[in-house]
Amino acid sequence: MQYRTGNEVRELFLRFFETKGHRRVHSSSLVPANDPTLLFTNAGMNQFKDVFLGAEKREYNRATTSQKCVRAGGKHNDLENVGFTRRHHTFFEMLGNFSFGDYFKKDAIAFAWELVTSPEWMGIAKDRLYVTIFEGDEEVPRDSEAEQFWIATGVPKERIFTYGRKDNFWQMGETGPCGPCSELFYDMGLEASEHGKDLPFGQDDARYVEIWNLVFMQFDRSAVVDPLGKTTSYKLTPLPKPCVDTGMGLERVSAVLQGKISNFDTDLFTPLIERAEELTGKRVSQAELDRETRTADEDAASLRIIADHARAATFLISDGVLPGPNERGSVLRKIMRRAIRHGRLLGHEKPFLFQMVYAVRDLMAGAYPELNESAERVARAVEAEERQFDRVLKVGAAKLDQELVLAAKSGDSPVLSGEVAFHLYETFGLPEDFIMMAARDAGIAFDKTGFEAAKEEEKARARASWKGGSQKTASPAFRDLPKTGFEGYRSLTSTDAEVLAIVKDGVGVPAAKAGEQVEVVLDHTSFYGDSGGQVGDTGFFLALDGNSTVAEIIGCVLPVQGVRAHKAVLKQDLAVGDHVNTVVDGDRRDAIRRNHTGTHLIHAALRQVLGTHVKQAGSLVDPTRLRFDFSHFAQVADEELAEIENIVNREVLSNAKVETLEDVPIDVAVNEYHAMALFGEKYGDKVRVVKLSDGFSTELCGGTHTGATGEIGLLKLVGETSVSSGVRRVEAISGMGSLDSFRRDAEVAQVAAQVAGAPAGGSLSDGLRARLASQEDELKKLRRELDEMRMKSAAGGLDDVVSQAVDVKGVKLLRHRADQLDRGQLRTLVDNLKQKAGEGVVVLASAQPEGKVAIIAGVTPGLTKRVQAGKLVGAVAKLVGGSGGGKPEIAEAGGKDQAQIGAALEAAPKLLAELLG
């Protein structure tokens, strides 16, 4: 067995399968394209899922990839184990080979054994390898076929073991492709043993490591439903073309080939760990104690966590994910904050993780050259999150202190609730051990059981939110049809198109009657189908003589990639084999083309004004407007929006040619034309390139566009908003939409001019500003007068409040309700009452707008050793559904139950008595 670097192992695997006729396919994004069932790309087969489901066709039937993957949330969540085990990772690379209805078990097994054992390739000793197969159950028989193929390659029968459905049967989801799998294991040796004992295969998971999983997709699992639509059982149907999907972890096999028992000891991690040592100043080789509770082994775990999480953060942000409140963003944030936290455990308080981004780039840019372009943008995003987390930690620590104070008052044996602790852990990123130690120091028990229950509940919610791969196979009515010839780039009409299929309620039918709504697939068409953010065309099917309408087309979709289904309301009977002419609604298509070309101009202008970190994060193009989402860290200023609009319209006025290049090799498009890929799109080996204004914008795009930029007419930005953390959205209109907008604005301006009256020599805007300023001054004057009246009314009754004071254990208590006063006015009243009382305690309550309650308590200086305003106001506020606190002499609280204000004031003497002891 020859030592090979991780990069060499990756290349070796891909090159081997290229010699076996496989197409090398570049890794897809970590954000699954058009797949809402997945949180992140977590397996090599993800990018081929539609191929396995029958919804997409490729020009090759054998593929090999090294796929970047993340498993850190949803169904696959081992985040807390990363760094403390040899083989858990958040980010990893999955080597794979795939057969789409071509070869099956025999060849897949032969390929695997040759690659792993041949001295020409990996050269792993055969006597250290074990194989598992599916043992069978009542639904699927034992996979004796795979066993025989393994034996034929030279694997001794005694080294083949059977396991059940949990280990050796794979399925995409509740329904869809599935089948038995066969796993290849490597014996790491006695030194890797978990217990230091020489145990046989199957009894020591640390020693015997799975390095390759061969999945044989041979069934389609479908639901059996009763007449009410309830699933009663499932059935397996053999697939007409069985497929192969394999996965070999690069990190694991690299450890094998480098003679390491831990993935973290391979050259895929050691440069990153060394960089983490430099940045944190902690070198574990010294094996010295950092602090009483941390040993050198714990320090090593922290360094492994930093190295692993730096890889995950770098690749996720590079692929468009940003830390934020949404599902993907929150998982990324959790990964990053865990790494930052472990940096702090090593004694490093300042931002450092952003510098790890460059170490990841230097190590992995050879396989993923896109890191060279994205590293600066990624590092900025990581540093911003580091600084944000520092602020959050400070807020979280303060919140923890508040919760400990409340817990201390809960009884004779105070306990910090596990639910509260998990909220602090999840929301503020406070480490569990930090919370436990703070509780211990305060003499408060920590509800460990409740904390773990809350954590498991959160994991269950995550698993429920992301179902993995529960997608149905494409309907047979569409799956086996040839691709629809698309003629819509050149013409709005297609003639003599043959009806290949009619689908009603998901089922293919030979014919349909007038009045029915169906989906119709033709051999060629001029209709564009929903894709790339652009909505599908509408229009008509005409009879071949052009004199009658066969169907009204209300939309066009792609149920299977390349197959266009026309949503048709039939005006005449229609049957498979009939021929029609297709006519697209030209005015609607023109409006869509203007808006789609506008998105390209906006994208380029955004990058000019805001920076090249801007990347498309989604779009929608319809006849009325365009919507464009993009990565950016701050709100776009009005001045920037104006500049973007100016740049776009200068390009429009130049009336430059819009050039489209068909069937361009993707390497040429990206490397020579520098074309940008669009968010969420899949690309084959040949792509369509759209160039605007002689290189002003060059993108990969399959949409319809204007022939020149001048056809847009004028583009007007009409909104800029936040979509999520790090993602902004602009909306715009063009063509007649812009004209309609200007007309409406002109009408508003005329009305405004009549209302405001422009000053002599001034503009309408000057007149409006003057009018609004005058009204604002009038409103301020009226508010002042109203506040003065309220204050005068409240102050007029202070003598009555003093006269009604109650004595509580020798302390004078004054209570009063003063509605609609703001907090400043309430504080003034408290000061006045304290002066009138001489020495005592004051509690004021006030009903506020929107159903809220304000509570303020004041204590004269001589009494603050006996009672503090913060504790009293907090106790009173609980009775109105609120909380609060403050200084010993004056404190404020809020509430939300105005109906309980009277009861709260009535209870004040009792609460004060309890605090006085």
From TrEMBL:
Cofactor annotation: Zn(2+)
Record-listed E.C. numbers: 6.1.1.7
Organism, scientific name: Occallatibacter riparius
Coiled-coil ranges per UniProt: 765-792
Identification of the protein by name: Alanine--tRNA ligase
Protein's job: Catalyzes the attachment of alanine to tRNA(Ala) in a two-step reaction: alanine is first activated by ATP to form Ala-AMP and then transferred to the acceptor end of tRNA(Ala). Also edits incorrectly charged Ser-tRNA(Ala) and Gly-tRNA(Ala) via its editing domain.
GO terms for cellular component: cytosol
GO MF, one annotated term: tRNA binding
UniProt free text on domains: Consists of three domains; the N-terminal catalytic domain, the editing domain and the C-terminal C-Ala domain. The editing domain removes incorrectly charged amino acids, while the C-Ala domain, along with tRNA(Ala), serves as a bridge to cooperatively bring together the editing and aminoacylation centers thus stimulating deacylation of misacylated tRNAs.
